[in-house]
Structures are given as C-alpha cells and as structure tokens.
Amino acid sequence: MAWDLLFSSDYGLFSLFVIVFVIGMAVWFSRFFSRNIRADEARPRK
Fold it and tell me: Which DSSP helix (H) or strand (E) runs through 35?
C-alpha cells in the first residue's frame, strides 16, 4: 500500500526525489568538507 503510493502518485514521487536529493547532498558535502580539511592540514602554517 505505502510502496504503491510512493511510486505511483505525484507527491510520492516528489518525496522520493527529495529523499534521494538530500542523501546525495549529504554525500557531496561530506566529501567536499573532508577534502578541504585535508588540503588545509597539508598547507604549511605561517
């Protein structure tokens, strides 16, 4: 029942899109921040 609503209705598909988008954003931000933290630590201090 719930799976049918998720994949067949407009609001279900939009909810699924938002869930996937937020998870993708979380992955991108975590990689972005960890990459910049590593680059900042490798930079020599003044």
Answer: helix 10-42
